[in-house]
Amino acid sequence: MPEVHTLEQQVLAKNDSLAALNRRELSRRGVLSLNILSSPGAGKTRVLERTIADLDQSVVCQVIEGDQATEQDALRIRRAGAQAVQINTGNGCHLEADMLASGIKILQPRESNILFIENVGNLVCPALFDLGETRRVVILSVTEGEDKPIKYPYIFHNADLLLINKIDLLPHLEFDLQRCLDYVTTVNPSLMTLCVSAQTGEGMDEWYQWLQKERAALTPSEPCEEM
Amino acid sequence: MPEVHTLEQQVLAKNDSLAALNRRELSRRGVLSLNILSSPGAGKTRVLERTIADLDQSVVCQVIEGDQATEQDALRIRRAGAQAVQINTGNGCHLEADMLASGIKILQPRESNILFIENVGNLVCPALFDLGETRRVVILSVTEGEDKPIKYPYIFHNADLLLINKIDLLPHLEFDLQRCLDYVTTVNPSLMTLCVSAQTGEGMDEWYQWLQKERAALTPSEPCEEM
After folding, report:
1. Within a domain: residue A75?
2. How far is residue B46's CA from residue B212's CA, in Å, rounded to a whole number?
3. Number of domains present in the structure of chain A
4. Which end of chain B has fewer CB within 10 Å, C or N?
5. Could you tell me if residue A225 is inside a domain?
6. Is B69 exposed, middle or buried (0-12, 13-18, 19+ CB in 10 A)?
């Protein structure tokens, strides 16, 4: 079906040009924006809840929440203490650049803010759609099995950081962490990987250090804040 | 973008007509075919491995494996003792009816066989694509959180059976089973739900009884086999 291919290319091209506008706007504002990607239930919202609570007032966090339905995740984020906008995609399987543009218009993020974009839980489709984010963060939970990087390679290939989450459950699982890391290296040799538990807090400090480093890199004129 | 909508409808219509052909062919052969749907890592392959081993020689099981990449799952199924065909979708996020047709051509399932179709791990897109299967089975693992039925309602709405898997991990999680069941009822009041652990075998007998019942319903002229 060549006409589908062409139309798909058109849709992606239109998305890409909107993403470029978002990227320019976020850069102009000095905002670190992160596209957070994972399967349903890997712990995206839980990671953000803990991050917002732990960073406390040291960083202004804002969140765009993508889900097929419900306002549940935005409510959780607001309870954790951050501004959140919920976007419901209905049948849609991923966020697109125009949705991020709408979220920016509502949240109006300012210099040194972190804008988290929690994508629809899906390890496949969001890989194709650039939103204009600064960095892509994939979350894989250890309950999903160590083979996901090679079975869903595209999303790992395009990521800047991988959080392996729910490591508090490792004693109860047959999960071969070293094999998982080997698979990650096969798919994306330069992918930085951190092992964390958003439940117990283990490993989260390294994630916060990564956030601060990325934030500092965006605003070289500002002094790097200590956490 | 109305032209996208129309083209999407065309793609779905073409898929639906191929699915109708598959359904007729599988019915003619007296084959129970099950479209198995879940997030990545919910335990689809593990459920099938255990099912094949436990049913042993009493039922001929065959499997079509859908993944973006690798032959991993087909190898696991073959080691468990069943015939398997691996279909790699590349960038694709779901199986389509023509892929099932190819699988049928290779496996040539016969009367009283069960043909499992393990879809790409994705709780969103496969909901839209009828393959021509007899029944749709969704697997949700308790590690994913109890809110998935309302956050990804479409796939639960169209399912015939829900397996809530990994219940052996319940003691280590904050998972409210009753709330999950309430959410399931909200989305699909008639959805039959079984709680299982493919790891320990807990609850799996009810799943096997369901399989035998569905199989018997397809072949009324055959005596119902005792397990």
Report:
1. yes
2. 19
3. 1
4. N
5. no
6. middle
- The closest alpha carbon to B39, from A150, A17, A123, belongs to A123
| Orientation of helix B44-55 relative to helix B72-80, angle to 10° | 20
Nearest to B34 by CA among B122, B98, B121, B100: B100
Q: Which of residues 120-139 of B touch A (CB under 8 A)?
A: 120-125, 128
Domain extent for B124? 2-217
> CB B122 to CB A120 under 8 A?
no
Rounded to 5 degrees, φ, ψ at A65 are -105, 120
Per-residue pLDDT of A76-96, as tens digits, reads 999 999 999 999 999 999 999
CB contact B152 to A (< 8 Å): yes
* Residue A223, in any domain of the structure: no
Q: Where residue B45 sits, what CATH number does that domain have?
A: 3.40.50.300
* Of residues B53, B78, B50, the one with CA closest to residue B63: B78
| Tokens linked to A105 | 């218009």
ipTM of the complex: 0.91
Inter-chain touch A150–B124, beta carbons under 8 Å: no
As beta bridge partners, residue A86 has A65
Distance of CA B52 to the CA centre of its chain: 14
Cut 0.80: pTM above it: yes
Mark yes or no for CB contact B39/A121 under 8 Å: yes
* B69, B123, B153 member nearest A40 (Cβ): B123
> Does A226 map to a domain?
no
Beta strands B61-67 and A135-141, pairing class: unpaired
Q: With CA atoms as reference, report the closest residue to B154 among B116, B185, B125.
A: B125
What does the pLDDT look like over A170-204, one tens digit per residue? 999 999 999 999 999 999 999 999 999 999 999 99
- Contact, A193 vs A184, CB < 8 A? yes
